[in-house]
Prior knowledge:
The protein is mostly beta strands. 15% of the residues lie in helices and 48% in strands. The strands form 2 sheets. It has a 6-stranded antiparallel beta barrel. The protein is globular, with a radius of gyration of 16 Å. The two termini are 30 Å apart.
Amino acid sequence: MSFDELSATGTLRRVVTGSRDRSGPIELLGRVAYGRLATSVRALPFLAVARHIVSDGRILLRMHSGFGHHEACDGSVVAYGADNYNDAASRTGDALWSVQFTGPAEIVRPCPEQEKRFGAAPATVNGEPFAPAYLRVYPHFVTQHTLDF
């Protein structure tokens, strides 16, 4: 399933892309470093901050392993979203955008090149030493929203 840009009311524009063509919205993720991962544990939803990179059309996430969020996501369908809302775009009049997608996640070990692309890791998370965990997400249902000023 693939849809072209769908005009919405006002200046909000939504792009919905199925599994055939998702390169446009997914490539926007390369412009920001962090996003939010959403899933549920025992039917209760939660959000977790994650660092991401795009690699071969898939999203690799780095997150703190100390909370066990990566284990809750392993083998499950998750949602992930990122945006440039805090970016300079809002001050320069450029379009603001957000990208969200759902897809299955799996725990992985990135290759050295991918680890390097993640850049420096935080020293601590909530006062505890940062311990990385990595997930690969295969985006299936992708949406992009833009706000033009």
